[in-house]
Each structure stands twice: as C-alpha cells, then as structure tokens.
Amino acid sequence: MRFNLNLKKKIQGFCLSLICLVVLTVQSDIPNLRALTMDNFQSEMVTEELRLKVPADVKAAWLNAEKEIWEPWLSSQDGFLGRQLFWDKEKEEALILVNWKSKKLWKSIPMSEVNVVQQKFEDNVKAALNVGDNPFELIYEGELDKQR
Length: 148
Fold this sequence. Notes:
Blueprint: H1 2-36, E1 46-53, H2 59-75, E2 80-88, E3 93-100, H3 103-107, H4 111-129, E4 137-145
Antiparallel strand pairs: 1-3, 1-4, 2-3
Helix pairs in contact: 2-4
C-alpha cells in the first residue's frame, strides 16, 4: 500500500513537471512566432531617409549634383518609386526621402554600386565648387515604414 502511494506521488510529480515544461516551452515560443512575421515587411513599401548638412552657399551645387548624378541612377533601379528633396534654411540641412517598392528590392542593390555613384556625386560637387573635400556631411540615414 505504501509502495502504491509513493508511486502515485511520483507519477503526479512527473505529470506536474511535464505540464510546467510544456507551458513554459509554448510561452517562450510565442515571441519567436510573432517575430517570424517581420519578414513580411521585406515586401512592403519603405522610405529611405537621409539627412545631410548643406550650407546655404553651396545649396545650388548640391541640388545640381542630385539632379545630374543621383536622379538618373535611382530612376534606373528596380523598385525605385520616386524621391523628395527638402532643405531647412534654419538648420542648413537637407532631408532626402527615397521611396522604394520594397525593402528587399532596395537592399538588393550592391553597396559597391552605391559607392561608385556616391563618388561621382562627390566629384561633381568638388569640381563645381573647386574644393578638395565633399562639403555635405551625412548626418543620419535610416528608413521609414508606411503606416496604415
């Protein structure tokens, strides 16, 4: 009788431990299951955000180089939807918003290709202003997701 009672307690303890283990495992996987859906954002529209220091006295050279160098190259990229250029005269900062069909298409562009275009942009500006260094400091780069 005592043996049966001990066995019964051990089975109850084992079952309780098993239930606790299952509950903890299921709860710990819930955040991972939610995180898996983040890949869906790869296929949704995204906006690239760039902020540059653009002094007032070289603003025209910046706009010209944007038009001559970046605009044609961006227009030829798969997934490019358009862009907007803004300039804050108080801060002497430019805000560039580039719209992409998806993050996947945007990020599929090789950085080596982007660097070549950036170098052409800087060479254009330096020649136009007759200076040795690029006067436009990159302050911030990031991305914005469209909200519904």
